[in-house]
């Protein structure tokens, strides 16, 4: 049995009738000898102490509420509740309680608070009879009425009977007349009783009573009764707010009196629920479920009535798009539409569909295009909310509009470009609006929600449109900020914006394979993105790295050639080495990138990394990633040699022949040349690999010769000159090919003592030892054992294949 099923919170009801949290623990039902019966035990999850020990009494009334609550009274003034994390656990304990009391677990109350025989008698009596005798509606009876109303709330059957009695006798109107008398007489005690009575009647949760209480005739008196909460020193002035402060704004005069009345009523009832009534506890939420439904259906009715009045909506749109409309009026019109769309969320799907189609027909999108470009921040914010409702409802409708618009307008005023510009120009330091707009853009460019037709036209047409007309606007801040191979602006707000743009571009890499590939190649976009690896904001450097990781994750040779020719690993490796010995997210993310290349055996990238950067990376030994890349590289080179040797001699031309002496001379000349050129590496072409069992028979001899040669060449390897590390300078062939200046790569290596044991530094997250036996890697790889058997010294450079 999982812990979460039995995980509960224990609550007790305090003197102020508020629920106090006694702690969280795990409940069980077991026989307790001291209590002589089955009991509920709750032990605290923090220290195992006993939070609750309660015998399941055969006559105690237990209530199950909302599938995850069990409530009961231990004594007259000691109420308890268990709130379960999962329904299954609640059902399990409920069955145990019902078993002890001999009840069917399908019931929600094990014992009613009234006698069972009385309950049966009630059910036999006709519904029209007065099942509860209400006291006469007089001032001196208010306390008695208040006690009656509050006493029935715990019994569903008695609540029904009281509601029926109140409805039949027109009792509520009589109570409200008493309220006016009490207020005139300043009878504070009577007003406090009326507060309890009216609040209790609301908790009866009956729609027929709400119809009476929320009518124009009664609602303000109901609000008045609820002002006199006994817990408050001074009564609240809710009626004053509703009549004087709250103003009903008609953006266009509403001529339908029924509609006006419904809007007023909904506002006031919502005010009662949200402001006047205290926030219901978890045990009282179901008491007001009918009140929530009352508001819900009112909103549905309002939307339907407005939608059917086409003259009204046409007038609203006309004023919204009219240039002569002043800013205040336009703000009110936009706020009206925002609330109108919010109300529409209460409609059934088919009705909501008709609602948005009506708005589209009337021209909501062209209107939004105008108001989203306005200077007024409040108007733009409301317009963004309306746009989000439309995108959520139908991305295809929005896409169709912008593609039609593109045939008649300049790129600058296209709706999507207006949205992108709003995202870029968000003045909020936390970019709250930009984040919302970015989410909407992602929905619009997501192929998953594009209509799947036989010819797939929407996807291809819209993506062609987006990359031709909008992508340059989206990437403009990124390209501008990285134009000089360094971050022009590196403040927090700019970094946040660039991170959002990169998130969207990373989404494109995953979902728009063809279009984004062309864009990246043509704009040399990855090089510009990797400039951000130098940002002082680590989250931005990680966004840039994530973009590259997604590209490499596609394992597309077009991308791989682009990366190797442009020498685009250099900024990543620089960032890793500049990060030093700090064990942080950047360090882990970079290592994971190289680990992916090793595990997936991406040969072209492996060769490029080893041939250009291995000297800088070989000192990183706390993971086996780079050693593993070197091993993969050497295995591939061996396969290349074996493949060359397997060609029949009759087919070989003289220029491929080498005797042993000539080969040694060539190697010597190449190594001397390497020393002169400070590590310049020539990348040999990578050919298709063959299975490992195709290795030549004399492979062992070849390895022995190679190891002997390596021991001779150890003097050519870089030596640590000081505890601070050492420097590598590379002149990369890929950079030279692109006509760019070569850059230096500085390796910040952890210092080591002369005897090879680990030396600690203040920021060294993991001790790195040169002693093989004590090396502890952060990641275990299945082929570590094989690699550990190989020579630990760095292998020398491999001779080039061919002449």
UniProtKB/TrEMBL annotation:
Gene3D superfamilies linked: Leucine-rich Repeat Variant, Pleckstrin-homology domain (PH domain)/Phosphotyrosine-binding domain (PTB)
Regions of compositional bias (Polar residues) in chain numbering: 730-772
Top-level taxon of origin: Eukaryota
MF terms (GO), sorted A to Z: protein phosphatase activator activity
Region ranges (Disordered): 674-803
Residue stretches making up the Serine/threonine-protein phosphatase 4 regulatory subunit 3-like central domain: 144-635
Biased composition (Acidic residues): 781-792
Gene Ontology annotations of biological process type: DNA damage response
A Gene Ontology term for the protein's cellular component: nucleoplasm
Domain (PP4R3 EVH1-like): residue spans on this chain: 5-101
Residue ranges, compositional bias (Basic and acidic residues): 687-718
Record-linked SUPFAM superfamilies: ARM repeat, PH domain-like
Family: Belongs to the SMEK family.
Protein name: Protein phosphatase 4 regulatory subunit 3B
């Amino acid at each position: 049995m999982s812990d979460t099923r039995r995980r509960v919170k224990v609550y007790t009801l305090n003197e102020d009738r508020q629920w106090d949290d006694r702690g969280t623990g795990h409940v069980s039902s077991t026989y307790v000898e001291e209590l002589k019966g089955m009991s509920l035990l709750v032990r605290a999850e923090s220290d195992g102490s006993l939070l609750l020990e309660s015998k399941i009494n055969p006559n105690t009334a237990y209530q199950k509420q909302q599938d995850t609550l069990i409530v009961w009274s231990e004594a007259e003034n000691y109420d308890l509740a268990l709130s379960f994390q999962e329904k299954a656990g609640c059902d399990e304990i409920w069955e145990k309680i019902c078993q002890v009391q001999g009840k069917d677990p399908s019931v929600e109350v094990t014992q009613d608070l009234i006698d069972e025989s009385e309950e049966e008698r009630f059910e036999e009596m006709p519904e029209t009879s007065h099942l509860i005798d209400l006291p006469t509606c007089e001032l001196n009876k208010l306390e008695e009425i208040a006690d009656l109303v509050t006493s029935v709330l715990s019994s569903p059957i008695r609540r029904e009977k009281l509601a029926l009695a109140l409805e039949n006798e027109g009792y509520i109107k009589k109570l409200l007349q008493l309220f006016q008398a009490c207020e005139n007489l300043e009878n504070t005690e009577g007003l406090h009783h009326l507060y309890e009575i009216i609040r209790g009647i609301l908790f009866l949760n009956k729609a027929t009573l709400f119809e009476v209480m929320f009518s124009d005739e009664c609602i303000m008196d109901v609000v008045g009764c609820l002002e006199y909460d006994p817990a408050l020193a001074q009564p609240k002035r809710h009626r004053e707010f509703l009549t004087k402060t709250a103003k009903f704004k008609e953006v266009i005069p509403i001529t339908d009196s029924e509609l006006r009345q419904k809007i007023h009523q909904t506002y006031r009832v919502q005010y009662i629920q949200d402001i006047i009534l205290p926030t219901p506890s978890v045990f009282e939420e179901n008491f007001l479920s009918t009140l929530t439904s009352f508001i819900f259906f009112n909103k549905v009715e309002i939307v339907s009535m407005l939608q059917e009045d086409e003259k009204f909506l046409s007038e609203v749109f006309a004023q919204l798009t009219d240039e002569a409309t002043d800013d205040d009026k336009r703000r009110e019109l936009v706020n009206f539409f925002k609330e109108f769309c919010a109300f529409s969320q209460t409609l059934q799907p088919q009705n909501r569909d008709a609602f948005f189609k009506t708005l589209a027909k009337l021209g909501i999108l062209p209107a939004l295009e105008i108001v989203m470009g306005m200077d007024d921040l409040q108007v733009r914010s409301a317009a963004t909310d309306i746009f989000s409702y439309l995108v959520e409802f139908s991305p295809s409708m929005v896409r169709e509009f912008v593609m039609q618009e593109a045939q008649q307008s300049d790129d600058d005023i296209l709706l999507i470009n207006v949205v992108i510009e709003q995202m870029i120009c968000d003045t909020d330091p936390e970019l709250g609006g930009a984040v919302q707009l970015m989410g909407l853009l992602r929905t619009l460019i997501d192929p998953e929600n594009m209509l799947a037709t036989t010819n797939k036209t929407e996807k291809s047409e819209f993506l062609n449109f987006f990359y031709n007309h909008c992508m340059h606007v989206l990437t403009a801040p990124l390209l501008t900020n990285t134009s000089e191979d360094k971050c022009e602006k590196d403040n927090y707000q700019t970094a946040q914006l660039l991170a959002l743009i990169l998130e969207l571009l990373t989404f494109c890499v995953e979902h728009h394979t063809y279009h984004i590939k062309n864009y990246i190649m043509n704009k040399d976009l990855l090089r510009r993105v990797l400039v951000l690896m130098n940002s002082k904001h680590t989250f931005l450097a990680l966004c840039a790295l994530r973009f590259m990781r997604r590209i490499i994750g596609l394992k597309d040779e077009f991308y791989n050639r682009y990366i190797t020719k442009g020498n685009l690993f250099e900024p990543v490796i620089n960032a890793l080495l500049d990060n030093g010995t700090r064990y942080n997210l950047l360090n882990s993310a970079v290592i994971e990138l190289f680990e992916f290349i090793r595990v997936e055996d991406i040969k072209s990238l492996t060769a490029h990394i080893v041939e250009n950067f291995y000297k800088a990376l070989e000192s990183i030994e706390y993971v086996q990633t780079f050693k593993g890349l070197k091993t993969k590289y050497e295995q591939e080179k061996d396969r290349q040699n074996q493949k060359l040797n397997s060609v029949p001699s009759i087919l070989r031309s003289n220029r491929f022949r080498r005797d042993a002496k000539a080969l040694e001379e060539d190697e010597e000349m190449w190594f001397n040349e390497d020393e002169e050129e400070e590590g310049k590496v020539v990348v040999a072409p990578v050919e298709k690999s063959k299975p490992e069992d195709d290795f030549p028979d004399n492979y062992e001899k070849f390895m022995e010769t190679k190891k002997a040669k390596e021991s001779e060449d150890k003097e050519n390897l870089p030596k640590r000159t000081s505890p601070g590390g050492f420097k590598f300078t590379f002149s990369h062939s890929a950079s030279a090919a692109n006509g760019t200046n070569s850059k230096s790569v500085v390796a910040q290596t952890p210092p080591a003592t002369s005897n090879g044991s680990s030396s600690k530094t203040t920021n060294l997250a993991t001790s790195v030892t040169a002693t093989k036996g004590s090396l502890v890697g952060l990641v275990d790889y299945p082929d570590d054992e094989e690699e550990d058997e190989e020579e630990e010294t760095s292998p020398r450079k491999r001779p080039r294949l061919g002449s």
